[in-house]
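Worked example 3. Consider a protein that binds iron/sulfur cluster.
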Amino acid sequence: MAAPPAIRIGVSSCLLGQAVRFDGGHKRNPLLVETFGRFVEWIPVCPEVELGLGVPRETLRLTRTADGEVRMVTTKSGRDITAQMREWSRARTEALAGEGLSGYVLKKDSPSCGMERVTVSGGSGAALRTGRGLFAEALMARFPRLPIEDEGRLSDLRLRDNFVERAFAYRRLGALFAGRWQPDDLIRFHAVHELALLAHSPAIEAELARLAARGTSMARADLEIRYRDRFMDAMATLATTRKHANVLRRMAGRLAPLLGADAWQELQSNLEDYRLGLAPLVVPLALIRRHVRRHRVEQLAGQVYLDPHPTELMLRNHA
Ligand code: SF4
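Given these inputs, the predicted complex is written out as structure tokens:
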């Protein structure tokens, strides 16, 4: 069977090792290049180089004017390039809409690419880490529900899990709505994502189930927009041990009639170890996956929760 096409993710070029930084250097990130790179088709963008600032170049900074406006200026010569960067970012993000992206990884702290806590000088005097890079700002405004993270936050295992799961979910959602979908397609899509959604937000899962069931009683375009937005809102809510434990218990309940006493005891002990933080999520999940396959439990076999992304990414490996 042919491998599925790689997932397309936008990225700050310097994170891939491209020598595009102001000093001719790069910020190659081994996690992105070596681990994610096996599954991802990167779409690299360096805003400062694409804007024509060259390599090497004068550094940039964000500064706040007396009336509170954030401007982008060159550090030594003080040239204000806010208008150029904003205009270029608007056009570039519009072009990215045709790239089929399922996520984006930005370089932290950059006045162009940083998504949060970028240093802004001026104003009251003190430099505050309250800014957002101008390209990142345009990107997040153009794609408000696209999974976007910076490489610093991806070193947090829970945020990394969440980003990857969201990116693959975003791609599946895009594939559903790319075709001439029917209400039954949405019901099926929701059914296989039920447990994944419950691990993130039981409240939004219930809301989405009601939406999916509305079928032809709602204009398809409205249904698509509301389902799409709330689905990604749910996936952006961080899963917790408690919510995962509830989902695992629910799956165990469906397996209960099929398991002998020893297998049941082993499963219960796995669930308890996970709940107490003594074992990572992959441990009970691997056991449940084995039982689901061995006993051909159709109700669970198609659940995305069991296989949300390539196992080689070694996610869900933290307690
Ligand atoms: S942080 Fe962004 S603008 Fe700066 S070098 Fe990297 S890709 Fe280019």
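Take a moment to read the result before moving on. The chain has three domains: 7-155, 157-236, 241-313. The first strand starts at residue 7 and ends at 12.
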